[in-house]
Amino acid sequence: MTDPIAYLGPRLKEIRMKTGLSLREIARQLEVSPSFVSQIENGKSQPSVATLYALAKLLSVPVDVLFESAGDPVAAPTKANDLEVNRNNFDHPTDVWDSSRARISAVNPNNRSIITMDSGVTWERLAATSEESVNFMEIVYEPGAETNKSGDMIFHDGFEYGYALAGELEVTIGDLVLQLSPGHSMGFDSSIPHRFRNTGSTQFRGIWFVHGHNVDHS
Amino acid sequence: MTDPIAYLGPRLKEIRMKTGLSLREIARQLEVSPSFVSQIENGKSQPSVATLYALAKLLSVPVDVLFESAGDPVAAPTKANDLEVNRNNFDHPTDVWDSSRARISAVNPNNRSIITMDSGVTWERLAATSEESVNFMEIVYEPGAETNKSGDMIFHDGFEYGYALAGELEVTIGDLVLQLSPGHSMGFDSSIPHRFRNTGSTQFRGIWFVHGHNVDHS
DNA sequence: GCTAGATGTTCTCTCCTAGTTAACACCAGC
DNA sequence: GCTGGTGTTAACTAGGAGAGAACATCTAGC
């Protein structure tokens, strides 16, 4: 069995990264030297219980998660890393917001980050956590608006989930066409070409969740 | 605030007592000297992280409960080793539904899979895609209902996102307590201990999205 | 280009403390 | 009385928790 204590360092680093805090900032708040934090993260030294506890508290994480084996031994594949498909041209709602992200994010409706598309489509961010490639948002389609003014279908990595709050939305996924009415919901593999269109005469609003495959990455 | 580390010793003793194990027996299994265990229990010395972890493991208790100020119900097993960590009772909404999952999933409100918890909490599945460790659902908290009847906070791998449709929900995440009203939304790293509670007099309903770290796996 | 400020890392060194051994006092049952 | 169990405390030591300084990168600004 693999010693969980051996993973403590990497695990700490992983969690610290998510918080966006620098090693030196941690050291400052913990009142220890930066070098020591580095030594801990690299497994060259071990903290005392007091330091361990303070560390967990600082990262607002139960002590136990520090012992969990960090994710998967994601031995980075040497090859597949360099480039993805040319999905850059597609504008899909991943990582398009500003950079403010945290481990806990609460948003009230009057204070959302909003992105307005030229095509009568609006995304309002509902939460900005430290997860990348993840978007939780309210989407608004004005009457006549559609995903792509060109009418083309789009596809991208990951999955997409939606819940209709108000109005009607015509959802096309692959061959499937369905009408989303308030209370209806759906989810699909977004590598299937898809398109949304508000064919009705009233505004459509829905709760949307979109994420890529690699929800977290080192 | 009183230092939780000061309570570590007494806490250990308390838990050990419940297991019926002698101090010397602990020392034997831990492969340390009995005197040292005594010193730890009396706060005259502190264990290293390794010893602390081994200790928690031996008592089959999460490390965190060693820091709790004594008095809380520990649910310690009567004999060591016959029970696992009492974290198992935590049910969190991942992979609890039936197996029907597809690449495209559309659900209308009258035809949802529903899980009713004993505590007045209901989950209604909004989509069932082929993704594992992912749940998109409408959650309902009746007045007075809470995540855990015991009042304990829960934590698990992954992230959690919510949008309030109706009613009020008291959300506790780590130290943070916030009131979720209709239109409000939030997201957080679910490894931070959290708890939800409907403190109001009306039913709470919200759109929830929960996923583990490993969103897809081959 | 240079500087000034961040970032994380890797040395070397010191002092503290985790953990030891010993002897201690208390019980049971034989 | 012994012999086995229990927990406690003193004196000691070896090892590692943690500091300090110098290191190599970066990025931003002049």
What can you see in these coordinates?
Two copies of one chain form a homodimer. With 218 residues, chain A is α+β, with helices and mostly antiparallel strands. Chain A folds into two domains: 8-66, 434 Repressor (Amino-terminal Domain) (Orthogonal Bundle), CATH 1.10.260; 109-211, Jelly Rolls (Sandwich), CATH 2.60.120. The first copy, chain A, has four helices and ten strands, in the order ααααββββββββββ. Chain A has helices spanning 8-19, 23-30, 34-41, 49-58; strands spanning 104-107, 114-116, 121-127, 134-141, 159-166, 169-173, 176-180, 185-189, 194-197, 204-211. In chain A, strands 2-3-4-10-5-8 form a six-stranded antiparallel β-sheet, with no helix packed on it. Chain A has a three-stranded antiparallel β-sheet with strand order 7-6-9, with no helix packed on it. The model of chain A is unreliable at 70-99 and 214-218 (pLDDT under 50). Strand 8 of chain A pairs antiparallel with strand 1 (104-107) of chain B. Chain A binds a DNA duplex (30 and 30 nucleotides) through helix 3. Chains A, B: One of its GO terms (molecular function) is DNA-binding transcription factor activity. Chains A, B: It holds the Pfam family Cupin_2.
